[in-house]
Amino acid sequence: DAGVTQSPTHLIKTRGQHVTLRCSPISGHKSVSWYQQVLGQGPQFIFQYYEKEERGRGNFPDRFSARQFPNYSSELNVNALLLGDSALYLCASSLTGTGGAGANVLTFGAGSRLTVL
Amino acid sequence: QQQVKQSPQSLIVQKGGISIINCAYENTAFDYFPWYQQFPGKGPALLIAIRPDVSEKKEGRFTISFNKSAKQFSLHIMDSQPGDSATYFCAASPLSGNTPLVFGKGTRLSVIA
Question: Is residue A101's pLDDT more than 80?
Fold first, then answer.
């Protein structure tokens, strides 16, 4: 079984540019969460989507946006990139997004490492 | 505001020894406490998790101890092996509702022969 797949694995952007990161969840998982992991820190929650609807948003500026498609894959978009956006962006999928035993059992992808110069 | 405090930041243990990583939380609504293991270049992977209706959970060499009154939980790795060298993250969330997992800052474990 394929796990959570993310693309691209690495990318380099310059300040002010825009980036789109993509995620395919485990088959059968309907919820996708995005986390930002800065070097040496734990993952920080950005967004959660379930059944194509935003179910949660972390403390990130409006430059960050996301969406979930009918096939449950997801995109994370970041506009007007700043140096501080350099991080590993992790996508995680879970069975449900509405609480209960399946909601927070997250399976993470390997991440997309973004470097902003 | 850090809701889950993890210590130590780094840990060096001899092969065969016991590795102990501690976490403390503030939010009494938390009732799901997983530990994730992350190797370089990989995403975090769920290692073991506990709910507060038990004080201890063991899976192989990995044990979570939970102290509800102190709002603390810890990961014990028995007979630590070089292959256990990784970064470990504790996390917490309520199981009900839709609150996301909150992670600690991580502990980098090195097991030396």
Answer: no
